[in-house]
Amino acid sequence: MKEFGLIGRNISYSFSEKYFAEKFQKENISDSTYQIFDLDSIEEVEQLFRNPNLIGLNVTIPYKEAILPYLDELDHVAQEIGAVNCVKIINGRRIGFNTDAYGFEKSLEPLLEFCHQDALILGDGGAAKAVKFCLNKHLINFKTVTRQGDLKFSDLTDELISNHLLIINCTPIGTFPKVDAYPDIPYNSISSQHLLYDLIYNPDKTEFLKRGEKKGAKIKNGLEMLILQAEKSWEIWNSSL
Predict the structure, then answer these.
(1) What's 42's DSSP letter?
(2) Architecture in CATH of 102-224
(3) Contacts of 122 (CB under 8 A, 6+ apart)
(4) 49, pLDDT greater than 80
(5) DSSP 57-71
(6) Rounded CA gap, 105 and 131, in Å?
(7) Tens of pLDDT along 139-175?
(8) Choice among 64, 88, 132, 232 that is catalytic
(9) DSSP 116
(10) Within the chain, which residue ranges are assigned CATH 3.40.50.720?
(11) Is 2 a catalytic residue?
(12) Name one GO molecular function term (predicted).
């Protein structure tokens, strides 16, 4: 039996296990399983890697960067991004990939308009690194907003919001079960020209997206990105490399 799974912390909300179970059933894949591995610390991944049946892992919050020292090799995209959300194990070697970038780019592209030249990225974890990679690729200028970085949430003015028509939430703020939480930005300055993208997919419409929608903005959650990155991961796990 080929074994696959997702590692992260406090990830009982994840749709990945259900997604792959349904995929395996729909596509008559009977030799594979996918499960959640909720790890208190990244060191616990070493025990998982000792499993000879383990073929691949997805990686989520907060281990997309912490996983790097446990890998033997990175593909060129993961190396450039500096974060990994997909690991393939082949002949005992652990190879890191980033399929977040693929999923984000493919789900964002149809929504982009000429006015979306400047972006605000909320948060600066592993997922944000994939987002930056994609924005650079599309020549979209961006500023990163964090609690303690060069640009803090308290620095966000009406003018900054008005001048950055693409706002991407890469923080876990608003994830189930804390669905009433939202990033602290001046929502009154959101307009119908804005595009608000939230990497969160549970709930399907976060408070961040609801507040943007009320102001007429286009909104997008992270579900399509999740599906695209999952399918890309499956493709990598089953490729010969």
Answers:
(1) G
(2) 3-Layer(aba) Sandwich (3.40)
(3) 145, 153, 167, 168, 169, 170, 171, 183, 185
(4) yes
(5) EEE-TT-TTTTGGG-
(6) 8
(7) 999 999 998 878 999 999 999 999 999 999 999 999 9
(8) 64
(9) -
(10) 102-224
(11) no
(12) shikimate 3-dehydrogenase (NADP+) activity
